[in-house]
Specification:
314 residues; two-stranded parallel sheet; alpha/beta; 7-stranded parallel sheet; binds uridine-diphosphate-N-acetylgalactosamine; Rossmann fold
Length: 314
């Protein structure tokens, strides 16, 4: 990893953020984590002890942001209300965190001489445009407050580049999975839910006929994409898909998880989930070209590693 001297990771106690913090620390980077622990957990970063500076606080707090961003070369902005359904239930709150919070992070960054901000965006911005695979130049079709907010964040990033010369990169994550993903809510990622069910010997519920498909990317690959986005010159100003360019049907996913966990349980089929999109698959040509990024962990291996973690969290 090309050296980053000092980075701020917002949401650094969360699922993706904490893996990013691990990688940065391993690369010799000084890391400050800002997290309000609304969905993040201290236990995700406890193992790092005093090798990081942890600040419990909110990204809307301008005074605090100005303090923690001082001296940082790069900001990785991962903090967000990450649940689509939470954004549907309480759009104002999600807007405050995802939009106002993002503007505050960008503003504090440009005021304090940060070189580059790498932002977590989402494949949600594509909505249910039936064209596959999703390329970054497709017109966005946001279908939820969450998607609108992520898209707005991308626009702000671009405007901060134009107005203030702040370098930004927006990464549109597809379906991320791996250790530390919290399976406990009904809105958790499907892989975390399925792995928990398989480990408990219980049947999962598949919404609809299970023929819907997703592009699942392992969290460590997402971390690598973030680090490259921070260090590779051609990334500046870009919006990039972060996926694998492959997909799997949800019923086949359960079958694979069953095989890897040595359980053979028939799933329960429930009604389709409202607002579910049928297919999702990324085109990763752009990120390959600008960052030289290719995912390294295939789904099967990522599932094996994640299953091991759910059985013995470390
Ligand atoms: C993902 C993101 C979301 C947003 C969205 C954009 C996650 C966790 N969520 O939502 O933040 O970016 O993409 O489109 O990555 N399913 C079942 N049974 C279950 C749980 C899920 O059948 O117990 C199905 C579900 O109906 C869906 C698929 O699995 O078809 C994936 O569901 P998900 O909640 O993991 O992720 P998704 O794609 O809805």
């Amino acid at each position: 990893m090309e050296r980053i001297s000092h980075a701020l990771v917002t949401g650094g106690a969360g699922f993706i953020g904490s893996h990013l913090v691990d990688e940065l620390v391993a690369g010799g980077c000084r890391v400050t984590v800002l997290d309000n622990l609304s969905t993040g957990h201290r236990h995700n970063i406890d193992h790092l002890g005093d090798r990081i500076d942890f600040v419990e606080g909110d990204i809307r707090d301008e005074g605090l942001l100005n303090k923690v961003v001082k001296g940082c070369e790069v900001v990785f902005h991962q903090a967000a209300v990450v649940s689509v359904s939470q954004s549907v239930q309480d759009p104002s709150h999600a807007c405050e965190i995802n939009d106002l919070g993002t503007v505050r992070v960008l503003d504090a960054s440009r005021r304090n001489g940060v070189r580059r901000v790498v932002m977590a965006s989402s494949s949600a911005v594509y909505g249910d445009d039936p064209r596959m695979p999703k390329t970054e130049d497709m017109a966005p079709m946001p279908l939820s407050p969450y998607a609108v907010q992520k898209l707005t964040g991308e626009f702000y990033a671009s405007v901060f580049g134009g107005l203030y010369g702040l370098e930004t990169v927006c990464l549109r994550y597809f379906n991320v999975f791996g250790p530390r993903q919290d399976p406990s809510s009904p809105y958790s990622g499907v892989i975390s839910i399925f792995l928990k069910k398989a480990s408990a010997g219980e049947a999962p519920t598949i919404y609809g006929d299970g023929g819907q498909s997703r592009d699942f990317i392992y969290v460590k690959d997402v971390v690598r994409a973030n680090v490259l986005a921070a260090t590779e010159a051609p990334a500046a100003g870009q919006v990039l898909n972060v996926g694998t360019g492959t997909s799997i049907r949800i019923r086949d996913l359960w079958e694979l998880i069953g095989e890897l966990s040595n359980v053979k349980i028939d799933p329960v089929f429930g009604p389709p989930r409202a607002g579910d999109i049928r297919e999702s698959i990324s085109d990763i040509g752009r990120i390959r070209q600008s960052l030289g990024f290719k995912p390294r962990v295939v789904l099967r291996q990522g599932l094996i590693d994640t299953l091991a973690w759910y059985r013995a969290p470390s």
